[in-house]
Amino acid sequence: MKLVLVRHGFSQGNLEKKYSGLTDVELTQDGIDELKRFKEEYHYPETDRYISSSLVRCRDTFEILFGDTKELDLVSDELRELYFGDYENQKSEDMVPHYFEGFALNERTAKGETMTEFTYRIVSKLERILADLKKDDKDSATIVCHSGVIKAILLFLGSKPFSAFSEIETRNGLGYVLDVDFDDVRRSIKLKSYEPIKKV
Description:
Blueprint lengths: L1 E6 L4 H4 L2 E2 L9 H13 L7 E5 L2 H11 L7 E3 L13 E2 L7 H6 L10 H21 L4 E6 L1 H11 L17 E9 L4 E9 L4
Helix pairs in contact: 5-6
């Protein structure tokens, strides 16, 4: 089965260097223009289904990249970004200096989600997406989501430690193409390979 994971375009939160998390921020004009350019420059593989986080920066990214020929099959709250608790939508320099060190150790920081809670939320939804695909005899889906969501999926499927969270590159408007096996009886996902979305 094929999964295409696409990060949303450059947003107002990115511009202001804020950890927007669950905060609903829009794409910037530069982000919109970049997505339009990426649509011509990069190959986004066609898939059977198109799914988006419910946050507007993802839904608008879908419309720009795919909306002229595709419709959203699912909009999901469960695919939203990590919740940063008391540091939600705060500038990076205003957060505790070692916020992500605690996060990588699975510690709750500022009343936000732990790494385990976040990963469970994302992977549980991914399992249901794959189960629905298999039930309907489909084998591919595009998911427009967030940096943290992509990282959580790649860490979990790659059996990598939480400490590798910051090492995974997730450029706005781009992402990865994953080849996976899904066992719908055991609800297990095996990552066979993955590669970045490539230029045309």
